[in-house]
Task: inverse folding
């Protein structure tokens, strides 16, 4: 399925080739969780702080394993800020 992946801060280094700025249209497995998507692109999960799914904030990384995405969703992942 196709989704929009947005990575902020130093996470932009994990975007695939062809990304524009901080976002890319990517193909991921059907019903993938937010955590699986982060891992698929090499985003270090222990450094994740905040996720937005279609503009709705999900601040608790442990629950991301329960959030399944669907075709056309947009996910943004932000790192811890030091």
Result:
């Amino acid at each position: 399925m196709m989704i929009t992946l947005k990575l902020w801060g130093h996470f932009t280094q994990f975007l695939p080739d062809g990304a524009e700025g901080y976002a890319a249209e990517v193909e991921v497995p059907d019903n993938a969780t937010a955590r699986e998507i982060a891992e698929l692109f090499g985003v270090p999960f222990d450094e994740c702080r905040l996720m937005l799914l279609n503009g709705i904030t999900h601040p608790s990384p442990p629950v991301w394993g329960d959030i399944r995405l669907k075709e056309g969703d947009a996910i943004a992942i932000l790192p811890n800020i030091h």
About this structure: The first helix runs from residue 34 to 40. The helical segments are 34-40.
